[in-house]
Amino acid sequence: MTFGNPWFLLGALGALIPVLVHLFDRRRPRAHPFGPLAFVLRSQKRTASRLKLKRLLLYTLRTLILLAIPLALARPEFTRDAQAATVTRGPAATAVILDASLSMRWSDGTSNFEKGRDEARDALKDLLPEEPATVMVCTGSPEAPPPPGFDRARLRALVDEAKPTYGTADLSRCLDMAARALEENPMPGKRLVVVSDMTASGFRLEAPPPTVKGPTGAMVKPEVVLRDVASGRESLDNHALVDLRVEPALQAGPRAYQFTFTVRNFGTKPAKDLEAAVRVGESTLAKGFVDVPAGGTTQKTLTVRFPQGGTVVGQVTLAQDSLAEDDRRAFVLPVPRGLKALVVNGSPHATRYRDEAFFVDAALTSPGSPVDVAVRDAEVGLREDFSAYDLVLLLNATAPSEEEAQKLTAFVENGGGLFVSVGDHVNPEAYNQRLGTLLPRPLRLVRTSAEREDPDAETKTAKLAQVKVDHPLFAPFTGRAEEGLIGARFYKYMLLEADSPSAPGTSQVLATYEDGAPAVAVARRGKGRVALFTSTVDRDWSDFAIRTSFLPLMQRFAAYLTGSLEEREEVRVRVGETVTLRPEGTQKVTAVRAPDGSEVPVKAQPDGSFVAGPTVEPGVHAVLGAEGKPVAALDFAATLDPAESDLTRVPQDTLTAYFGEDTVKASTGDADKPAVPLWTWLILAACLAFFFEGTLLRK
């Protein structure tokens, strides 16, 4: 038994008063025989036992009154040995640290965080009146708690207003910060109360335990009280989506993607028939089931074909468990829209593989390509209505007429894409005269690096030497994929002038031959784009058309020139991190909205990019541009840290050894706490004794 106010026990000495009165009141009368009183004495003997019992009851009730009142004021409490340690040091300045990490959202009907808030309120309620206190909500980026004080209402408000986060919480760091706050109070006793689910991810046990400056200036260990909100549970079972990979599924057709997600079971029991699905809004696009062994990891792949292009926002979901937040993962997927391309064939041939457009047509219409191709010869193709197409490809075509050139110029300036490849039918002077304002650079003349019949042609042919793989057009051609580019042999190619006189400085060379001559040049013209390939797209001047890189490169040309190529790297950001946004051209980022509608801080950078964050919740974040208009291409999804999904708990013995023998494990749960304090019953007993004492006196 422990006492909150032990000095009041001195009042229990008052219980001796009735005993002393009884002792001093015992007088022995001298015998004086008197005959008339014999009858009275016989009557007294009959009532003596009843009077003796009444006096004994009165003395007992009075003793109980005088004993119960000081005992009640001393506030006795039955506690376990560990609990008794909380008061052996006397009053102490106290810091209550409330864990607000993602794992505290785990729920068995009532979330661990709600239980934690109740524990924090109880910790404040159990403090002595002379004990100052402070409250710290421990998050991934915690703020230093205020110095200990006596404003209990403010501290309770901090607990009531606290909310769980979606990130990690470094309890070791929070304990150190709380210890520094306690040092600002002169009271010798210091106490840290940790309210947490005691998961391993929250502690850095390799770091030294917290210490505070003692009365002599030496660093000492404070008293540590652990309030475990998951007391009695050996483990908190949980499964989670820990990774998601989205890739094109070319075998399933255009705009088809396969979603490969990794499921991990952190629990001690196997998870069977977990439903996994890909959802967009309220629609379920694909669904399957997955089994995950206890402590194991499994991958599941679902294939989805989207009916149309654009930026698709959705999520992959898993059957929910007690921690639902890590059973879903949002994604932002740029799906290429359907494109209509007009291929102007400048050199048709009866033999298909010798036709100028054969390889281009095969590349653009291959499985998975979103391009709808219409092939026309030069005479018919240049008379087409270009506004019905997204892209025009001039393949070794003769220079268009003035009227056709004007139509092409208007088409590009209004947002269309133009691809030009050269060949024997291309006259540099005519092209410069008619299409000079469109071409990235003026044409000069044809250069022959080797004749096909030359026995040394293998060593004399030109090859690509410098390719800008940092540009979206060539971004995939790194590592082994680069061989398909640099291995191609070019027998002839068109040399270019230094720059276009009509638009100097607007062109960009993305690939060159070994002699430095441009192989691929691109430029913006109005709202559209133009690309110039200085060799042929058939096998007349090179063997590039039969290389493995030709098909994906032509598809990327189509996407790039029409503005549907995703030109930004996949944004991978976790909750608590910042993200760099790179808008296109002069576009600005004015705001970023989190899934709950709140604004995420945005800061402009000198290079034109914008840094947003830190993000505070998982899900899709919407990016707003000028005048608050959405910029869907810059939207991104924030994901959870998988480390918080691991709810492995630190054993109590380990924490006791870490903090030292002075560690206290506070009781949790209503079942472990008396409904009514013991001193309340003592006061009630005193009141009842007073009532019965008065009743006996009246009889």
Automatic annotation (TrEMBL):
Domain VWFA stretches: 95-197
SUPFAM superfamilies linked: Class I glutamine amidotransferase-like, vWA-like
Alphabetized UniProt keyword annotations: Membrane, Transmembrane, Transmembrane helix
InterPro entries on file: Aerotolerance_reg_N, Class_I_gatase-like, Double_TM_dom, Ig-like_fold, VWF_A, vWFA_dom_sf
Domain of life of the organism encoding this protein: Bacteria
Domain Aerotolerance regulator N-terminal: 1-76
Phylogenetic classification of the source organism: Bacteria, Pseudomonadati, Myxococcota, Myxococcia, Myxococcales
Descriptive protein name: BatA domain-containing protein
Transmembrane segments: 6-24, 56-74, 678-697
Family matches, as Pfam families: BatA (PF07584), VWA_2 (PF13519)
Record NCBIfam families: two_anch
